[in-house]
What we know:
single chain, 67 residues, 2 helices, 85% helix, elongated
Amino acid sequence: MGGIGSIGVPGLIIILVIVLILFGPRKLPEVGSAVGKTLAEFKKSARDIMDDEESPEQKDTKKKELS
Length: 67
């Protein structure tokens, strides 16, 4: 199993056509916006979890690098 990374362009086109058929052209911007907001929230949560797992020394090093 290759996962999502191996879908490729033909797979993405098929998915977009199916979404267009299911939701219609009028709802497409709303669906895209909802998906974007969901992905942004997921990335933020994942980043917060990764930051929580870092040791205090790693956090201090990052702060010094950013300064």
